[in-house]
Specification:
The chain has 430 residues and is an alpha/beta fold. It has 2 domains: 296 residues, Rossmann fold (3-Layer(aba) Sandwich), CATH 3.40.50; 123 residues, Rossmann fold. The protein has 17 helices and 13 strands.
């Protein structure tokens, strides 16, 4: 039987919410102005999926498509680039508002700042963003990728001129490796969205950078006459993106925030485990984390993001791989009239979860908890495109990680008792 979705409602005690200010509207406005200074900047599409919404019984379903971000096929560059700009601003005594693309690529920067080496750990998207920004700004980048990282993602980072390695350890160990190397390197800087005690400034800048995506989405919803999403589904690795999105929309709608649902991959569901424990303390997951959602395979929460999430999230959900595969196929083969979204393994899990909650009665309790129904206007973020094209094709074209459904005579749906892999092999045998 296919692995089941697990979830926990938020019963944790509230904190003083001191980190919500990271995602203030003013901070996000600065980040967006910085990104707008790049000649490569365009607002990424917000796909309005009216056909899918009608099929599922929702009022609206919109998906932010980050496969168009700066030609890098993922949103991550927003955080790394803004953090690097803030670091340079601090080092040169400038306001980040003055550190535009033109300044950061000028001869004056070399005179004012010189050159630093930016270290990071990543499955691919964040590292590519840091490498791309470092390349554009005349800086150096060193990227360590965890065990199981794919060659296409390695090649994309190397193409930006960074020093890249694939290590035989998990993501969190790679973070520790990058941090140690940055400490030992003259003018070495660790650029990571994982935050820990004593390392909070750069992760907060990264989160503010992610706010550009959320700000664009809010603006695009208003242009569609959807003045406020009722539900925001956002995926989480360390929780920086989730904390950024939840923080921004909480600040944007302080009197009536959306219902927030945070979604993780099952082998690395550290936020879900913290929520399930219910005491307000984060939990850590270690060891190997086998999942196609490589970008979400992070076992140690960002303490800044966690603090925002524990105060404002309604439900934390742990998803097996079939959930995101379902989202990838749904977005890649949309209802007639809906735009196509090419969404990668870490990008589609929220859409896959929405699809499942609306169609599978097994998860009616979670659906009821979050109030998902025909009046709901849902916002999801597809955070990456086909960053591993071969795997994308295997899932979307060849049916890897299928959701096994069959329709009974009464018109209802139920899951088959056969394992998904068994069904796939049976199909191929014919």
């Amino acid at each position: 039987m296919a692995d089941k979705i697990q979830w926990a409602g938020n019963t944790m005690p509230k904190s003083d919410d001191k980190h919500l200010g990271i995602m203030s509207l003013d901070h996000v406005k600065k980040a967006r102005a910085f990104h707008q200074s790049f000649p490569q900047y365009t607002v990424t599409p917000l796909a309005r999926l009216d056909g899918q919404a009608a099929r599922l019984g929702l009022s609206n379903l919109c998906v932010k498509d980050e496969s168009y971000r700066f030609g890098l096929n993922a949103f991550k560059v927003l955080g790394g680039s803004f953090a690097m700009a803030n670091y340079i601003a601090d080092e040169t005594g400038k306001d980040v508002a003055d550190c535009t693309f033109d300044y950061l690529t000028s001869d004056q920067l070399a005179e004012d700042f010189g050159q630093a080496t930016f270290f990071t750990a990543t499955d691919g998207n964040h590292g590519r963003g840091v490498a791309w920004a470092a390349n554009k700004l005349g800086q150096k980048a060193v990227v360590h990728m965890p065990k199981g990282s794919t060659k296409p993602r390695f090649d994309n980072i190397a193409a930006e001129g960074a020093t890249v390695t694939i290590e035989e350890v998990n993501y969190d160990e790679c973070v520790r490796m990058a941090a140690a190397e940055a400490d030992a390197c003259e003018r070495g800087v660790i650029v990571q969205d994982t935050a820990w005690e004593g390392y909070e400034k750069i992760p907060s800048w990264i989160m503010e950078g992610y706010g550009t995506m959320a700000s664009e989405a809010a603006e695009q919803l208003r242009e569609m006459a959807i003045n406020r999403p009722t539900h925001v589904f956002v995926q989480a690795g360390v929780g920086s993106l989730a904390g950024a999105v939840v923080g921004y929309f909480t600040n944007l709608y302080p009197d009536n925030p959306p219902t927030f649902v945070v979604v993780e991959c099952a082998p690395a569901a550290c936020l879900y485990k913290g929520a399930a424990a219910g005491d307000g303390d984060p939990r850590i997951v270690d060891g190997d984390m086998p999942s196609i959602m490589a970008g979400l395979c992070c076992g140690e929460p960002n303490i800044l993001g966690w603090d925002i999430l524990r105060n404002h999230t309604t439900a934390f959900v742990s998803c097996p791989d079939w959930v995101t595969a379902r989202g990838m196929r749904t977005l890649g083969a949309p209802e007639k009239g809906d735009p196509r979204v090419i969404s990668g393994e870490s990008g589609a899990v929220t859409t896959g979860l929405v699809e499942t909650l609306m169609l599978d009665p097994e998860y009616a309790e979670l659906k009821e908890l979050i109030g998902l129904d025909k009046t709901s206007s849902v916002l999801c973020f597809s955070t990456e495109g086909d960053t591993d094209p071969d795997q994308y094709r295997r899932i979307v074209w060849e049916g890897e990680y299928p959701t096994c459904w069959q329709t009974d005579l009464s018109g209802g749906s139920r899951r088959t008792l056969l394992p998904a892999r068994t069904v796939l092999l049976a199909r191929r045998a014919h």
